[in-house]
Amino acid sequence: MKRKHPLRRIVLGTAATVSGVVLLLALKQPGSGGGDAVAQNQPGQAPPVAATAPPGGGAGAGAGAGAGAGGARTVTGDVAQTQYGPVQVSLTVSGGKITGAQAVKTPNSGPRSEQIAKNSIPTLNQQAVSAAKVDTVSGATYTSEGYAKSLQSALDKAGAQ
User: For 139, phi and psi rounded to 5 degrees?
Assistant: First the structure.
């Protein structure tokens, strides 16, 4: 009868584990290499990216019955409190259409929430300009929900003016 060598299994298992750990550590982490950009933004300050509609008018939805055909005006929504900090949206409305959207306040409870906001706010700004509504950004649920509340508040204010 042939006897199995338990030491051989241990050595192979250890080698496989070490190889797996080395491969995982060798992968580039998402968001790495951008530490300088995070340090440049003040806590709670929105990322420098704002969405604007193309000069031809874009596909923005109407801001409401009270929106005139006059010049562009800026409307700021109420601050929406989230689990990780406040979110506030400012809209530029021209001719009854949203021509620009920018987050004035973003969550700032720590480096992780600031990184999530930095990654998700440009997408939310683009969605607000193109459709006047936002879908939840994966990995940024609370930020997306706060953004949507503040966006709705800004739309309500724009419609009342």
Answer: 85, -5
